[in-house]
Specification:
Elements lengths: L8 E5 L6 H11 L2 E4 L2 H10 L7 E3 L3 H10 L4 E4 L9 E4 L21 E4 L2 H9 L8 E4 L6 H4 L15 E5 L6 H4 L12 H12 L4 E6 L10 H12 L5 E5 L4 H5 L3 E4 L3 H7 L5 E4 L23 E3 L5 H10 L4 H11 L7 H14 L6 H30 L6
Parallel strand pairs: 1-2, 1-4, 2-3, 4-5, 5-6, 6-7, 8-9, 8-11, 9-10, 11-12, 12-13
Helix pairs in contact: 1-13, 7-8
Length: about 400
């Protein structure tokens, strides 16, 4: 790998703190700067990782971001989300990339010069959508977020020490109205939070410890579901064995849990790494059911029981804690989804990025930026034209 001091590289964060861990893993290998237009992300990083103060920059909007890119003469931008500024070459590393959401089946994936997949499943989803052949360079590298677990360098602070079994409830984010028009089956997108969170607390708090790990993409208002859950915990007198958490990394909480409840989320596949039972909370019992189609958003549900009724919660959890009947199918899906969970995924990812960087054209920076900008805008125009075609003639929008 080339000297990371020579890499004029940036990482861009926009929506939520859960996009930061894959970037954090790369920084020691590649160096570079982190740019975010989200003040909450900026404040969180400085609070949790104060040693990164000089590497993290807060930009007040996209114009300010472009100015920072030019000021630092950035030649490559790494994105964990589907963003692109068209300044320099673009690399997609996915903040999750394991999820069953139709996230990767987007024409926006064609905006990137290099795409690094966590495993065969994500690559196959893009191939099934017929986009893979249009991506010039891609590699399967694994899932760097697992490396600290495998290398036993993760910092785990025990939440409970009372001898009870611990249940981790990890719902995905609640979709906004424009998303629920696409996800027609559920008023809350693919999140079980509104439908099941309070029921799960009521049914399990007497027999188990419960960690509720919220997705960091939350918008709190007085009296909302988050306040309602806080109030319920107090009402039940369950403060000593039911806690809520907001963090950029769910893995330390998974490490100390005996069973997880989730819905349609990357967290399900992250949990498979621990080889422990899972139960799925159905966001729309009338419509969703397990599927063996990798294009379905319930592909992971083959690996556990599914809660469709309040009376299912306690019996299902007790049965699965005592007897892990889905182990074989769960491990099969995990091995298909995650390439080589050997503790070296970060190195493979960093090596591919460094090799690509080392092949960047040696031309004056202004000309280089113009070339990459027009390439990116050209790809974006093609994507819009295709989307418009599907809207007008196929009655179905492709991509985002």
């Amino acid at each position: 790998m080339m000297d990371n001091k020579k890499l004029n590289i940036a990482y861009y964060l926009q929506t939520d703190i859960q996009h930061f861990p894959p970037i954090y893993r790369l920084l020691p290998y590649l160096g570079g700067i982190v740019i975010t237009t989200n003040k909450k992300i900026y404040d969180f990083i400085l609070q949790k990782y104060p040693e990164l103060e000089k590497q993290v920059i807060y930009a007040k909007g996209k114009t300010a971001t472009r100015k920072i890119i030019l000021k630092h003469r950035i030649r490559m931008v790494v994105y964990p989300g589907f963003n692109s500024f068209y300044y320099g070459k673009s690399v997609q590393i996915f903040h999750g990339g394991l999820s069953d959401k139709n996230y990767v089946e987007s024409l926006n994936i064609l905006l990137y010069n290099l795409v690094l997949f966590p495993g065969e499943k994500t690559k196959d989803k893009v191939k099934k959508a017929r986009y893979l052949k249009y991506i010039k360079e891609w590699k399967i590298v694994g899932y760097p977020k697992f490396d600290p677990l495998i290398n036993k360098s993760i910092d785990v602070k025990p939440v409970f020490n009372n001898g009870k079994k611990t249940i981790l409830y990890a719902p995905t984010w609640i979709a906004k109205q424009n998303v629920t028009k696409i996800i027609k089956f559920s008023a809350y997108g693919e999140s079980s939070l509104m439908l099941w969170a309070k029921k799960i607390v009521r049914e399990l708090h007497k027999d188990f410890n419960i960690i509720i790990k919220y997705h960091s993409k939350i918008e709190r208002t007085p009296g909302d579901i988050y306040d309602q859950i806080d109030d319920l915990i107090k009402e039940l007198g369950a403060e000593e064995n039911v806690v809520t958490k907001i963090d950029d990394n769910i893995l330390p909480y998974m490490y100390q849990a005996d069973l997880m409840i989730s819905d349609i989320s990357t967290a399900c596949y992250e949990w498979f790494h621990f080889n422990r039972p899972i139960v799925f909370a159905n966001p729309s019992p009338e419509n969703y059911k397990p599927s063996d189609d990798i294009g379905s958003n319930t592909y992971a549900w083959q690996a556990g029981d599914v809660i469709n009724n309040k009376k299912d919660i306690l019996p299902m959890v007790k049965q699965n804690v005592q007897h892990d009947k889905y182990k074989e199918i769960r491990n099969k899906i995990f091995n298909y989804t995650v390439y080589k969970p050997d503790g070296h995924a970060t190195e493979r990812q960093a090596n591919e990025i460094a090799k690509f960087y080392n092949r960047l054209p040696k031309i004056p920076y202004p000309l280089y930026i113009l070339q990459t900008f027009f390439w990116g805008r050209g790809r974006r125009t093609i994507i819009k034209l295709i989307n418009n075609y599907y809207q007008l003639f196929k009655k179905s929008k492709v991509g985002k």
